[in-house]
Amino acid sequence: MIDLAQLELDLINAIGSAETATAVEDIRVAALGKSGSISGLLKGMGALSPDERREQGPKINGLRDRVGSALAARKAELEAAELEARLQAERVDLSLPARPRRRGSVHPTMQVMDEMVAIFAEMGFAVAEGPDIEDDFHNFTALNFPPKHPAREMHDTFFLKPNPQTGERKVLRTHTSPVQVRTMQSQEPPIRIIAPGRTFRKDSDATHTPMFHQIEGLVIDRDIHMGHLKWVLETFVARFFEIDDVQARFRPHHFPFTEPSAEMDIRCDRSGGKLTLNTGDDWLEILGCGMVHPNVLRACGLDPDEWQGFAFGMGVDRLAMLKYGVPDLRPMFEADVRWLAHYGFSAYAAPNPASGLS
Ligand code: DAH
User: Fold this and answer.
1) Can you tell me which atom of ligand 1 is nearest the CA of 177?
2) Average pLDDT, whole number, for the chain?
3) What DSSP assignment string belongs to 124-186?
4) What is the pTM of this model?
5) If both were cysteines, with which of 52, 188, 231, 342 could 48 make a disulfide (CB 3.0 to 4.6 Å apart)?
6) CA of 214 to the centre of ligand 1 (A)
């Protein structure tokens, strides 16, 4: 008969001196695995007489339990020691200054997006997002672009290859307006969102790049009217350009998704080859806006007799150029570190309305 006490002593000693989790695992397999020493004893119980079994059973079970606990305890101990060693080894001193030559900067487009988000967040707007690759429904149809209408081509749309099964052609979204549709489909009004993001059109010159950025705004509630639109946008422009008494005008325009539609201009002066805002006899177009068209509300499952709203959209890169004096749009996306070093912003100064935007 095997000496249970000796077996236990050997196992407990081996466990105590195991230095790694793998060593502990090897002992577990050798003792409690399928053909382990203790498993063998348990299996052998079937061959014992009832009396022997009554005597040996509790001893072997007790041995199994004690060895099992010792294995688990040693494993936990080793894991804790390993974690401690890693914590020591991977310690990072967060108070060390960044190395000046390796310091990155925030791109003017991202800086301006952060500024816009900060201003609108203070007015109670949440940030919404949608995919860069859109379907025709969200980019055009739900926004009241008539089927086969040349507007789809006028947007200089990038079409993806048609799906061989369905023939459906996805598009790179030509504007952020599809996020309006996605938001109205997925949220109950009242809605107050802005949607910053990338947009794409087949166009390239000093003022157009195939990829650019827009911010969309959408407010849906009961009894919303143009007065609300005007206040929100004038307040935004005042804070964004840090001017007090904004001189703006709303010029009638056409967008399929709003009725009435307008473009907002700010008074400006272009004399002497220099652009100055809020003074002079000239006007600078800033954004498009309007009251959400009833067809758009219906396409998104809202009853236009119950809900109204306004929407607006603007080009972020263009506003960044205007605010920070960037002369040409194209280098903005060429990822030249010298350009970024010149026009970029400190990553440590996140814009917020309390400490100042820029
Ligand atoms: N989606 C328009 C564009 O890309 C911009 C725009 C105009 C958005 C008016 C709006 C809006 O939400 O109301 O040209």
Assistant:
1) 1
2) 92
3) TPEE----SEE-HHHHTGGGTPPTT-THHHHTT--BPPPPTTT----EE-SSSTHHHHHHHHH
4) 0.72
5) 52
6) 9
